[in-house]
Input
Amino acid sequence: MKRFLFVLFLCLSPLVVWASKAELSFLKDLAGWKASEPHYLKYAGGEQKAFYIRRFYERGDGARLEVLFAGGTQGEKLAQTLKGRLEVETPDFILKYRQIDGYRALISYAPKEKKGFVAIFLKDNPSLLLLARFSSLSDEEIWPILKQLGWSGLISQGLAFLKEESP
Output
């Protein structure tokens, strides 16, 4: 996951501008979770526009969640990378694609460790992705938690932000 975030950062770094909370306040608090302040990044250069918002959450029982909402041209490249066809299921590891409320999603999960990663492909063209890394949660528990973020609202806000950034 660290490698993934590093690659994402490199993709977004050529024309980086730190965004303000007023511009990118899409990831809301989750009931029963302590949340960090969101981290925001946006860029626009020529035809390329992108943003990401990252936030950490922790629950009293030790469950942890890192959420990244990303959109724009560089997100399309990332989505293409994640939209492979390979699926694996063993007692130690699961890599599967699912349909969750009409959205295609990828889950990578280690059942014995109760750790995983999900990618939810909220929209293509422009690409909007919701990514989450989690621990001390099952692969079934993560979906209702992430749904609390309001996926349709994220899509609306992400599209509005990308439209505002148009040259």
Q: What stands out?
A: The mean pLDDT is 83.
